[in-house]
């Protein structure tokens, strides 16, 4: 049986996490777990989680750490993720989430933490072209401010644990995919 592949991915809104994580996950044959997709799906189905998350997503804020931690812990505990691994897109997003993630995966840590790096001015242009329902200018700016304040400290957190890999996210989708794929492959040794 092939080894499992366990990767966490962060990057600014619009960096291309969803686009690239789907391709990388398909390439390595592991589940793509996107916390943003899980939340949007819960909103569409009007579940209790969706009702709690809707206002937060519309305003560009972050859903409460404890809720996100139990959601991810549950998802990574499912059979496919336990056996094959995961490409985790959008979690952890705060140092509290990172500490919880490191603890829940202490027995089998992620192979690497990928920072998909795209400058702020480039992501703003991408997002304005995309027009997802929660992509209002106010929400976009608020999310990008929150990224600098809450998520960018994860770069140092994972650098100090030597699992950080920075992938340049500027270029065509194929160019970025090739860099990302090669980076993950190198982490697997
Ligand atoms: P989430 O869905 O994770 O959104 P996000 O981080 O804001 O990022 P996006 O999904 O908007 O962008 P992306 O990096 O995936 O880029 P994409 O591939 O779409 O989270 C949504 C919300 O859920 C959060 O704001 C928060 O409220 C909540 N949430 C989620 N996780 C949470 C957590 N852990 N804790 C608390 N709250 C949480 O690409 C963007 C666009 O660019 C697309 O149009 C794409 O076609 C285009 N594009 C992609 N690659 C390229 C390229 N190389 N060149 C040109 N264009 C490109
Ligand atoms: Mg996304």
Describe, in plain words, how this protein is organized in 3D.
- The longest helix is centred in the last third of the chain and has 16 residues.
- It is built from 10 helices and 5 strands; from the N terminus they run βαβααααβαβαααβα.
- It has 189 residues and is α/β, with parallel strands linked by helices.
- The protein has a 5-stranded parallel beta sheet, with helices on both faces.
- Bound molecules: BIS(adenosine)-5'-pentaphosphate and magnesium ion.
- The site of magnesium ion has 4 residues, from α1.
Notable characteristics:
10 helices, 189 residues, alpha/beta, binds magnesium ion, 5-stranded parallel beta sheet, globular, binds BIS(adenosine)-5'-pentaphosphate
Could you give a quick summary of the protein structure above?
This protein is α/β, with parallel strands linked by helices. It has helices at residues 17-28, 35-44, 48-59, 65-76, 79-84, 95-104, 120-130, 137-151, 153-160, 173-188, and strands spanning 5-10, 32-34, 85-89, 112-117, 164-168. A five-stranded parallel sheet has the order 2-3-1-4-5, sandwiched between helices.
């Amino acid at each position: 049986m092939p080894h499992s592949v366990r990767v966490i991915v962060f990057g600014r809104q619009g960096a291309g996490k969803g686009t690239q994580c789907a391709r990388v996950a398909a390439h390595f044959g592991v589940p793509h777990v996107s916390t943003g997709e899980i939340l949007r799906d819960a909103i569409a189905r009007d579940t209790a989680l969706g009702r709690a998350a809707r206002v937060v997503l519309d305003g560009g804020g972050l859903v409460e750490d404890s809720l996100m931690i139990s959601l991810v812990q549950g998802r990574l505990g499912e059979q496919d993720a336990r056996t094959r691994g995961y490409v985790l897109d959008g979690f952890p997003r705060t140092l509290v989430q990172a500490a919880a993630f490191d603890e829940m995966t202490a027995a089998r840590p992620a192979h690497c933490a990928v920072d998909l790096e795209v400058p702020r001015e480039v992501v703003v242009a991408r997002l304005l072209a995309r027009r997802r329902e929660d992509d209002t200018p106010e929400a976009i700016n608020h999310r990008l401010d929150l990224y600098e304040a809450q998520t960018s400290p994860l770069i140092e957190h994972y650098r100090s644990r030597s699992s950080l890999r920075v992938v340049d996210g500027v270029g065509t989708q194929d160019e970025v995919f090739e860099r990302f794929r090669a980076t993950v492959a190198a982490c697997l040794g």
